[in-house]
């Protein structure tokens, strides 16, 4: 999700174009490149974003969920009010299934869950933090897909059960396996080891808002290995 961070700094927009991976009369599923906001930020320099680009071609496109500026991957964009309403209900009911892939430092266990509460960090706004007292319950399931011993890097599959801001980045950093290229929650060499955050929303599945038929769209990350 986009956060107040977008409102405070100028975030240069990627020149990489979005791509359409599913299209019909009532919805699109498109890929957002890394280094592009999903919606406009308040800063005048942050008006270029995914939805403004899509609306040039599809004026009725609306946003029903977001990806961070740094995160690449699939975004569902309803084209009608009915589609927006129906898909919104699915997100609220947590019946939309989202999977991410990431490259992280260290050897992650084969599979597990991270259940750590997340709160806004009052001392370091607009960042977030793990806090047992004020944090909202947050759950991430993960699975290690591979491990590169030479680079000490794990390729992981991530399933966020909840949808807190910066949840995947925070949870992985909290268990000692920050995402490579994460300039917010990783330190030094890990943050600088890639030109982008190596986190990608690679799969989304939900029921079509008109037909109720299950729909799954996938887009493997370019950093897959």
Which residue ranges are poorly predicted, with pLDDT under 50 across at least 5 consecutive positions?
A: none
Strand content bin: 25-35%
- Principal-axis shape equals globular
CATH class of the largest domain: Alpha Beta
User: Class by helix and strand content?
Assistant: alpha+beta
Task: Walk me through this protein's architecture.
The chain is of the alpha+beta class and 225 residues long. It has 2 domains: 90 residues, 2-Layer Sandwich (Pseudouridine synthase); 93 residues, 2-Layer Sandwich (Pseudouridine synthase). It starts with a helix and ends in a 7-residue tail after the last strand. 39% of the residues are buried. The mean pLDDT is 93. Keywords: Isomerase, tRNA processing.
Brief sketch in words of this structure:
This protein is 16% helix and 31% strand. The protein is built from 5 helices and 11 strands.
Task: Fill in the keyword field for this structure.
Pseudouridine synthase; single chain; globular; nine-stranded mixed β-sheet; 31% strand; 225 residues
Layout of helices and strands, plus pairs?
Elements: H1 5-8, E1 19-23, E2 27-32, H2 50-57, E3 72-78, H3 81-92, E4 97-105, E5 111-115, E6 118-120, E7 128-130, E8 139-148, E9 153-160, H4 167-174, H5 188-192, E10 199-207, E11 214-218
Parallel strand pairs: 3-10
Antiparallel strand pairs: 1-2, 2-3, 4-9, 4-10, 5-8, 6-7, 8-9, 10-11
Keywords: Isomerase, tRNA processing
Domain Pseudouridine synthase RsuA/RluA-like: 27-174
Family: Belongs to the pseudouridine synthase RluA family.
